[in-house]
Amino acid sequence: MEKIDMNRVILIKYGELTTKKDNRKVFINALYNNISNKLKGLDYHIEKDLSRMYIEFNEKDLEKILDKINHVFGIHAYTVAYKVNSDIKDIEELILDVLPKIEIETFKVETKRSDKLFPIESTEFSKRIGSLILKNKHNIKVDVHHPKTVFHIEIRKDYTYIYFEEYMGIGGYPVGTQGKGLLMLSGGIDSPVAGYLSMKRGINIDCVYFEAIPHTSIEARNKVIELAKKLLTYGNNINLYVVPFTEIQEAIYKNCDKEYVITIMRRMMYRIMEKLVHKYNAHVIINGESIGQVASQTLTSMEVINSVTNLPVIRPVACLDKLEIISIAEKIDTYNISILPYEDCCTVFVPRHPVINPKLDKCIIEEEKFDYNMMIDNIINNIMTIKILDKQDDYDGLL
């Protein structure tokens, strides 16, 4: 059996987490746990301190580990670094050992000496290592402004870490550090992006999908499941709550002014969401509303729709245009799923001319035409839960 490579480690830099003070340990421990959960089944060992995290790895698992940490929020940057004792001779020997393995045209050396007991200060040590490289590698030049290769040397108390390439992580806060929110996940482009962006700020999400069978299809539900699975790659296990919305949606369409159908439908969704937030111990409602994109997302519509709840509603894509949202959807691999031609309940009953500036008094009058409270109670009692798990690939038995 192959052993963990003790000479190289994946060095993780925290970035925004270092701005925290008394609770920095909370954020670092959450990041540690999230990485550990993603790396289950792989051969690795993690050490952490307040400045860095170090992952020792088995060479055969390196690419898999790097792919996993590329999807973990809370990582500012990472690199694969050589690890050596913080001893001048040992550092120089390692530099000489790796020189034949890398191509160099122009270079510079950057040293960070966090261990102030190390006998040579940073600038002088960079010059020393630079001279060593020039003596042992031909046809290369020093370029302190635009080098093609940078020798990064981080000198710490026990070990020194040397690396040449640094990769950007996806930043943000570790998922779970800000509590839980419920995402209104439709089959469209916007709501998965909203889920991704809220997770980036540390929110642990569960998802709520409103369906109206037979007006919506099982294929539409499958589409939402696939979107939830994409979001799962960035977070923890997700509960997908499937809301049977048919009865109340038909009642709206049958009894209410057609121009107000979408506004009242959204108000009912918010009433249901408020109950679910309390039921499942969440704190906020999250959705993919973008200002002015459709009739229900004008500022007037948002005000009237939002008035049914006192809960905070987070709209991460509210101020992004459609092209910006699509760009993120492509980045997180949800776009091609979102454009599959299966309608959800937000699109099947859209009137030809929905009201753009609804009146609250008018909504209240229209809603008095049917007993929506009884219907909402019935809906809450008949919600189906689908668990989206890291190791579960087949959801057919739940459909």
Account of the 3D structure:
The chain is α/β, with parallel strands linked by helices. It has two domains: 167 residues, 2-Layer Sandwich (VC0802-like), CATH 3.30.2130; 219 residues, Rossmann fold (3-Layer(aba) Sandwich). It has 14 helices and 15 strands. Strands 1, 2, 3, 4, 5, 6, 7, 8 and 9 form a nine-stranded mixed sheet that branches. A hairpin with a 3-residue loop joins β2 and β3. α7 runs antiparallel to α8, α8 crosses α9 and α8 packs across α14. The longest helix is centred in the last third of the chain and has 19 residues. The chain is elongated. It starts with a strand and ends in an 11-residue tail after the last strand. The C terminus is likely disordered.
